[in-house]
Amino acid sequence: MIDLKELSLVSGKAAWMAYLDIYCLDADGSLFDAALLSAVAAFSHLQIPVVSLNDEGRIVLISEDNGGGKLEKEPVNKEKRKLKLATIPLSLTCILHKNYILADPTAEEESIMETLVTVVLDSSSQLVSLYKPGGPVLAQTSAIQDCVALTRQRLKELQKILNEAISDMEVD
């Protein structure tokens, strides 16, 4: 999702480290899907601040209220910028129960499942990841293909939700 070159400040010497903690306040199924959507929204909103290197080679944050005064060192990056994401991963979890596939299950539905499949696609509908833990059901290839197809159908809806969340986070 993140092109590591986007985090580089001085090639081979300094780079940003991005940490993300996700706290679940209420889980009603498909927790991975919600967490991934939240992570993508958070990183889409992330801004890289203007910094410079001091005499010891340490990164120094240049405050926005510098007042146009002269800087001791030339900034490493000229202006604050948003982190550009290389790809936007979006997921859909499906449960497999008997001969049925149920997309985006609730916690109650997950409790009766035989197994689950989580499909992660990028914004161009290319498969990024497929997760199917063990379980008593050996998923048929057709069931996996159906889950991927359901994820492709859900992609536009997820992109709309993501775009709305990002625009709600924008501050003037």
The domain tally reads 2
What Rg is obtained from the alpha carbons, in whole angstroms?
A: 21 Å
Share of residues in strands: 15-25%
Mean pLDDT: 85
What oligomeric arrangement do these chains adopt?
single chain
Number of strands: 10
Biggest β-sheet description: 4 strands, antiparallel
Which regions contain 5 or more consecutive residues with pLDDT less than 50? none
Q: What class do helices, strands and sheet pairing give? A: alpha+beta
Q: Number of helical segments?
A: 3
Main location: cytoplasm
Subcellular location: Cytoplasm; Nucleus, Nucleolus
InterPro entries: ExoRNase_PH_dom1, ExoRNase_PH_dom2, ExoRNase_PH_dom2_sf, Exosome_comp_Rrp42_subfam, PNPase/RNase_PH_dom_sf, Ribosomal_Su5_D2-typ_SF
Domain Exoribonuclease phosphorolytic: 6-49, 88-150
